[in-house]
Amino acid sequence: MTQLTPIRRAPGPCLLDTALSLSAHAVPVLPLRAGKGPFGNCPACKGNACGGRPNMKNPGPCHCPGVCHAWAAATTDPAVLTSAAWTAAWRRAAAVAYHPGAAGLTVVDLDNAAAVDWARIALPATRTVPTTRGEHWIYRGTMSSHNAVRPGVDIKSTMAYARYLGPGTGTMTALPDIVRALAVKEASPVRPASDAIAVPAGSGGGECPHRTPAYLDRGIAMAEQRITEARSAVHATVYRTFLAVLSTHGRCGCLTDTHITRLFTAAQTKGESPRHCTDAWTNARTTLGL
Question: Whole-model pTM above 0.70?
Answer without folding.
Answer: no
